[in-house]
Write a structure and sequence with these properties.
The protein has about 400 residues and is of the alpha+beta class. The chain has 12 helices and 19 strands. β1 and β2 form a beta hairpin. The relative contact order is 0.17. Bound molecules: ligand EPS.
Length: about 400
């Protein structure tokens, strides 16, 4: 199973093709649109989110609300495209054009041609690599707009996993210096996740959420941007996803790659993560226990649900750190690639922080990797085939699926 995304940030649409997805998995349009809309929330998002109302347009692979096993293709149209049509036109020259950003008074006018790379963005390295002096050729694709496509693909993975009782969620632990007092190493229950969805920064702890809003306001006033930390969990995973037998089959390695590939993510950890460095082994490794009616379980989950590259039946706990968004309204020190004179970096419309949205994107990436691992373990061309293999496996092992 694989998916490809295409689309420039200000092009007419994002496009996705999913190939190898099993047949007969039920999914509704509202399920996909709900995920797209969750990604658009979050205090600190930029003006673009006022323009876009992301909605999926299915092209193929679905009939009467169920997958067909054929390639699933869909578009997420960019409403903002009409304002950028000349800038991004596939054939017309556009160097001397600009865009008026009606929804962002602070920025006002954006030049089509970008020649002063933004430190921290793909602009400079991408321009050198592909031989561009107009860095719009890089930034249009490097933009985190592409993550909307991933969330669309992730909605399909979630729909598959939901059939096996797997629940995925996320919340924000830190933005800038504002930090939650919540445990950094546990999955949330349903009510807690609902609270997170209502929070402007997707944070469970209301005091920390208020502090996060304050640091974002302060960053805005100072022309700054902020990063942070989010946590993604998956509950109801059976033991046995991924494998210890080969490096590229280890589930934690695959999840880390998927989460690290989200723009701005600079580190990923599982369970105790980096905190394990300072602890003795007896304080780190989770005891193994058994209870009649419950089966095998672990009284603690410091491993974050993975041992030896294999899911161990406990909740998956992944945290990731996101660096501050590299577009600063104050413009960082840079060079003009045409004259090599020192200038302030170009300023594009951007977010002040996107940590809440990144959590939703990471849910999609985690869902994708887990759905792949399910297909590998339980095989089959259709959902009923997978379910048979799953049920037969659970008959064999002393582990209980999540009762929700
Ligand atoms: C984004 C769309 C982008 C940015 C942001 C995320 O749209 P625009 O550039 O038109 O404002 O708002 O992207 C970045 C911050 C970035 O660095 O790429 C989106 O849909 O998430």
């Amino acid at each position: 199973m694989r998916f490809l995304t295409a689309g420039e940030s200000h092009g007419c649409a994002l496009a996705v093709v999913i190939e190898g997805f099993p047949a007969l998995v039920p999914i509704g349009k509202e399920e996909i649109d709900r995920e797209l809309s969750r990604r658009q929330q979050g205090y600190g998002r930029g003006g673009r989110m006022k323009v876009e109302k992301d909605r999926v347009e299915i092209i193929s692979g679905l009939r009467h609300g169920k997958t067909l096993g054929s390639p699933i293709a869909f578009l997420i149209p960019n409403r903002d495209w009409q304002n950028w049509a000349v800038v991004i036109d596939p054939f017309l020259p556009g160097e001397d054009t600009h865009v008026e950003l009606k929804e962002d008074q602070k920025l006002g006018r954006i030049r089509a041609e970008v020649t002063a790379p933004r430190p921290g963005h793909a602009d400079l390295a991408g321009g050198l690599k592909y031989g561009f002096t107009d860095l719009r050729n890089v930034l249009e694709r490097a933009s985190a707009r592409e993550t909307a496509a991933r969330v669309g693909a992730g909605a399909f993975a979630r729909a598959l996993l939901a059939q096996f009782g797997v629940v995925i969620g996320s919340h924000v632990l830190q933005i800038g210096t504002a930090l939650t007092g919540e445990s950094h190493n546990r999955a949330l229950n349903e009510e807690e996740q609902e609270e997170v969805e209502k929070s402007p920064v997707r944070c469970l702890d209301p005091r920390a959420a208020a502090a996060m809003v304050d640091v974002i306001d302060k960053a805005s006033a100072e022309g700054e941007s902020l990063g942070g930390i989010f946590l993604v969990y998956a509950k109801g995973l059976p033991p046995g996803l991924g494998s210890h037998v080969h490096w590229d089959r280890r589930l934690d390695g695959r999840l880390a790659q998927a989460v690290m590939s989200i723009p701005g993510v600079k580190g990923v950890e599982f369970g105790l993560g980096f905190a394990a460095a300072g602890l003795a082994g007896s304080k780190v490794h989770d005891p193994i226990a058994y209870q009649t009616g419950r089966g095998l379980y672990r009284p603690t989950n410091n491993a974050g649900g993975i041992e030896g590259g294999i899911s161990n039946g406990e909740s998956l706990i992944v945290r990731a750190v996101m660096k501050p968004i590299p577009t600063l309204y104050q413009g960082l020190p840079s060079l003009d690639l045409k004259t090599w004179e020192p200038v302030r970096a170009a300023v594009e419309r951007s977010d002040l922080t996107a940590v809440p949205a990144a959590g939703v994107v990471a849910e999609a990436m985690v869902a994708w990797v887990l759905a792949e691992a399910f297909l590998e373990k339980f095989g089959g061309d259709s959902l009923p085939e997978m379910k048979k293999a799953w049920a037969a496996y659970l008959e064999e092992i002393p582990w209980q699926p999540l009762k929700s």
